[in-house]
Amino acid sequence: MVLPSGGSFVHLLTDTASFVAVALYVLAFLLWDVVKGGKLSRPTLELILSLIVAMLVVGLLKVLTGVPRPGEAGVHWGLLESLKNADYFAFPSGHTTRAAVLAYFLSRRWRRLWPLWWGWAIGIAFSRLLLHVHWFSDVLFGLLLGPWVFMLVEYTESAWLPWYRAVIKKLRLGVLDVE
């Protein structure tokens, strides 16, 4: 079955999970925390770390699996060439993974609105399919990877939080310390 091509709405929807858009969301939460409480909140720090870890995992998986996007030819690049061109590969979907990380974060912050957040993340997944830039497995894995990474960051907090606080203290960036 071939899906129809996405129109301008689908492009607009998919752009709400672009790297730049997500960076702006993170900046907004960071500013909100600083204005509201004078420092970074633990959930926002977990969001930032989860996004960083998730994007590292996505990039690594793209390079290691080398799955071409729909309609693209398979390539056999060396490691360095593959790293430079990681976005050429499909698996997993970075947009969907970022959306799933955000949906998990937003669902924990505003629990009653969880259907809205996860509806948006699933919409991002469908937009990637409608734009014919991902396979179903790419977006399904992204929807699962995002929350898994966030939960991993939460679970390992006792290991990384003291190190984070020591670095922030040494750099005298108290505003980035967590509550």
Distance between the termini: 51 Å
Question: What's the SSE pattern?
Answer: HHHHHHHH
| Major sheet details | none
* Structural Rg: 18 Å
- The rough form would be described as globular
Report the helical percentage. 55-70%
* Low-pLDDT stretches: none
Number of helices: 8
Strand proportion: under 5%
Instruction: Supply the helix-strand structural class.
Output: mainly alpha
Average predicted confidence as pLDDT: 90
Total beta strands: 0
Report on the architecture of this protein.
The protein has 179 residues and is an all-alpha fold. The protein is 69% helix and 0% strand. The chain is built from eight helices and no strands. Helix 3 packs antiparallel against helix 5 and helix 5 runs antiparallel to helix 6. The chain is globular and about 50 Å long. The model has no long low-confidence stretch (mean pLDDT 90).
